[in-house]
Amino acid sequence: GKKRYDREFLLGFQFIAAST
Amino acid sequence: MKHPLQNRWTLWFYKNDKTKPWQANLRLVTKFDTVEDFWALYNHIQLASRLMSGCDYSLFKDGIEPMWEDNRNKCGGRWLITLSKQQRMLELDQFWLETLLCLIGEAFDDYNNDVCGAVINVRAKGDKIAIWTRDTENQKAVLHIGKTYKERLGLPMRIVIGYQAHADTATKSGFGVKNKFVV
Q1: Does B106 contact A10 at a Cβ distance shorter than 8 Å?
Q2: Are A14 and B104 a contacting pair at CB < 8 A?
Q3: pLDDT digit string, tens, across residues B147-178
Q4: How many Cβ atoms sit within 10 Å of the Cβ of residue B29?
Q5: 3-state class of B149 per DSSP?
Q6: Which residues neighbour B26 within 8 Å (Cβ) at sequence distance 6 or greater?
Q7: Distance (Å, rounded) from C-alpha B126 to C-alpha B147?
Q8: Is there a contact between A3 and B98 if contact means CB atoms under 8 Å apart?
Q9: Buried b (16+ CB within 10 A) or exposed e, B98-123
Q10: How far apart are CA B126 and CA B115, in angstroms?
């Protein structure tokens, strides 16, 4: 299926990504 | 388990060196195709507002080069946001991040396929941000992308943004380029 993400979902990963 | 994006994207960086031809100043930074890898990159690089004047970032779908001449750009155009000097402090980084999130999140409903990429130009005389689409003749797609983009940036109704064909931008310059569409 198409992988679409809204801004809140994407923003939720900003600092999770930074800490891993 | 990372969250895959619909597309793989390439970040390009342009640094103005007048002694070299345009293309020699353009560097491919990296490619990514997950939400997590996007943030790892975004968090690592300079904010646009801190780049030297004359620099650009471009984010394009994998396989499309950030230039008019690329086959997937040459019939296309761009929704152009021009910013005043004052907006660099307040809005430049916010608008560019929103642009990136629109691209990687595939924000344009049935018309994501028309999007090629986006470019930010950091310039002393005024910064610019644009979303590039592949075909100026795809009016429905161009208008939907423009309306959605304007909403996502939170621009008020009274602000009008214009869409220009690359073919016109390439042959004219500055204020000589006329808008093919506005929203």
Answers
A1: no
A2: no
A3: 999 999 999 999 999 999 999 998 886 667 89
A4: 15
A5: helix
A6: B12, B13, B14, B66, B67
A7: 23
A8: no
A9: bbbbbbbbbbbeebbebbbbbbbbbb
A10: 24
The candidate with the shortest Cα–Cα distance to B106, out of B35, B180, B170, is B35
In 3D space, the residue among B85, B50, B79, B72 whose CA is nearest the CA of residue B152 turns out to be B79
B112-156 residue pLDDT tens: 999 999 999 999 999 999 999 999 999 999 999 999 999 999 999
* Cα distance between residue B130 and residue B116, in whole Å: 11
Can you list the positions of beta strands (E) in B21-173? 26-34, 56-61, 77-82, 115-121, 128-133, 162-165
Whole-angstrom distance, CA of residue B100 vs CA of residue B106 = 10
**Residue B67: what residue type?**
M
